[in-house]
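Support request, please re-run this one:
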Amino acid sequence: MTAIASSSATYDFLRAKAHIVAIRKSFVSPELRIGTWAARPGLRGFGDTDVPDSATSYTCLHVVGDLITLLDAIAPDQDKVFVVGHDWGAYLAWLLCLFRPDRVKALVNLSVAFMPRNPQRKFIESVKAVYGDDYYMCRFQEPGVMEAEFAKLGTARVMKEFLTYRNPGPLFLPEDKMFGHPPDAPIVLPSWLSEDEVNYYASKFEKTGFTGGLNYYRNFDLNWELTAAWTEVQVKVPVKFIVGDQDLVYNSLDAKDFIHKGGFKKYVPLLEEVVVMEGVAHFINQEKPDEISKHIHDFIVKFH
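Re-run finished. Output below.
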């Protein structure tokens, strides 16, 4: 999660990778830094932030509350901010816009489209009905289980597995067969990811463990309960959405049809642009930092 402010506006960049948090310099380009100052806080449970013990301390209301408190502290004279999010940052950015549209001037979100609440069935129940118990979100639900399995693999190995995952489809993590290959199979890092970066990410999770990050997934159903009052409510801020065509999220849970066949626009009526980047997977802002920075810049300057 990153926050940037200028004399005319505040940019609040929310960023949390699945199971990983670290703010890379590539996420904010030099052209966005000019004339701005930047604050880069992390989400609770990640990196150097606090890690509450209770799983129920990671609901969307807690974390959006953190964001509002942050904005009140770092930009007390700014009525509205620009927001950019990726992965869990994107999910929370949607909810920030849903709960407090009065604080958001415009949004650029990466990888994760808005997910309208289904009043008929809880989220994990719905996901399990489609993909079964081995789907990664379902596997993350039981406290302690994935923590133990990740410990067997080793923290650095877990980082490499997630960061290099490029299968354009749902992610399954069956017990003792995670990622579909032997745990000692060599992993070749892409050009945009170095061993030093992997070791940095691993050092943060060696310090905090994985429980904080996994607790976000463990609150999906509680979030479903807490957001009942926002069923069928639209996100009414200007939005640009960017996703890679190899992204597992884009290729799961009928996301493509929702994005391209009217559902997305129905719930986000001020959606101005959808960008699908060819040959790009989930960690889009790391894989294509210059292109993403330009997309962000080009959208934000429209509002000056």
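The first strand starts at residue 2 and ends at 6. Strands lie at 2-6, 10-16, 36-39, 81-87, 104-110, 239-244, 271-277.
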